[in-house]
Amino acid sequence: MKIKKLGVQNFRNHEATELELDQVNFFVGHNNAGKTTLLAALEWALTGHCLWTDRAGRGSAELICRGQKQAAVSLEVEGLGSILRSMPPNSLRVGKLTGQEAQASILNSLRTDEERLQIALNASAFLAMPPSEQRAFLFGAFGLACTAETVAQKLAAWLKATGHSEEKATALARQAKGYYPANLTGGPEVLEVMEKRAKDLRKELKRDKQRAEAALAELSEGALLETPAYEQVEELKGQLAQLRQHREELLNAAGDRNLPARRQALNHKISVLDQKLQTVQDKAAGIIAGLQGLPAQDNTTNEGSYSQREKDIRGAIESLNNQMASLKGEAANLQNRMEIVTSAAKALASADRRCPLAPEHIQCGMSKTQVEEILQRLNQEYRAAQESLKDIQGQVAGLLAEINQAGEELAQLKENQAAEREQAKQRLLLQGELNTHQLLIKQLTSEREALAQELASLPEPEAAPEGLELELQALVEQMQEVEGKLVQAGERVALARRQEELKGEATTLTAEVADMEILVKALGPDGLRRDLLAGILGDFLGRVNDRLGRLTGGAYQLGLGKDMSLLCRANGGPLLPLKLLSKSEQLRVGIAIQEALSHAVGLSFLAIDEADMLDQENRDLLTGMLLDIAEEYDQVLVFTTVGDVKPENPGIARVKLFWVEEGKVSAV
Question: Is the pTM higher than 0.70?
Answer without folding.
Answer: no
